[in-house]
């Protein structure tokens, strides 16, 4: 017999509740009710689920999205949020806080419900699997997301963009775990994570602002070096040889009433001496792929301007 605790049931015609994807406790359709009382406060939540109005406890609850309804418990929501926030995650990095049977059960439940995809992969010489969100998983998170006033939203992603970069990208979540643990041990309150993709997308929009809307635009940016340096400074990113340097992930947090950030880069065996030199001058925290943090504050070299990236911005 199912032990799912349904917080809202559909009408007799089988349609989902008209609550914008959120659930309401039984007997309350005002739209202002909170989730079940056993859910921890946002202050005590895993940082990646702080903005999610989804189950946090051990009991499964029924939730809805445009793709359907799902029965989820807190550990499954945390898995969804981690996979979505980092786009691709090594499944071996997802089960550190719960037993292996429970962890595998979470992954299988999410896969069977069409919320994640799991693919076999070789990472750091070992056969394992990686997880990504499906479009349905991404929609579920976004429809149950609510950022506070003045709070930037955590972005979630579905699917793979660059399969050849999976070994590198799948290591970013592990680097984040190490960084987040150290920050939280020091009293920090993590707000969200920002992938390099988000920073680079914003940079491309800045570069292409003068080309957007022009029929015969070449896609080549016309920003001066001074403008680029000013943009980088405003976003607290270093510039080397005229190129903005981007971390793999930026961890935004609050400590002692101050908004802070830590930029993290995952270094792989493919990085050459020139790239490592650029990392050392950029102020990013470097993690060697497959090992723990190397040391404070270094970073990666950025690639020159890619006209193909600009094509997507101009569409």
Tell me what you see in this structure:
This protein is α+β, with helices and mostly antiparallel strands and 315 residues long. Helices cover 30% and strands 21% of the residues. The chain has 9 helices and 13 strands. The strands form 4 sheets. It has a 5-stranded mixed beta sheet. Helix 8 links the parallel strand 11 (258-267) and strand 12. It starts with a strand and ends with a helix. Residues 1-44 and 291-315 have low confidence and may be disordered.
What's a quick, concise take on this entry?
The protein is α+β, with helices and mostly antiparallel strands and 315 residues long.
What fraction, in percent, of the residue positions are helical? 25-40%
Q: What is the CA–CA distance across the termini?
A: 51 Å
Described by strand count, sense and barrel closure, the largest sheet is: 5 strands, mixed
Uncertain ranges? 1-44, 291-315
What is the alpha-carbon Rg in Å?
21 Å
Strand order of the largest sheet: 7-10-11-12-13
Looking at this protein, list some descriptive labels.
single chain; 315 residues; alpha+beta; 5-stranded mixed β-sheet; 9 helices; 30% helix; disordered N terminus; disordered C terminus
Write the layout of secondary structure elements.
Layout: E1 5-6, E2 61-65, E3 68-72, H1 74-86, E4 89-90, H2 100-112, E5 116-123, E6 126-133, H3 135-143, H4 166-169, H5 172-185, E7 189-195, H6 196-208, H7 225-234, E8 239-240, E9 243-244, E10 249-255, E11 258-267, H8 273-282, E12 285-288, E13 293-295, H9 307-314
Parallel strand pairs: 1-2, 11-12
Antiparallel strand pairs: 2-3, 4-6, 5-6, 7-10, 8-9, 10-11, 12-13
Helix pairs in contact: 1-2, 6-9
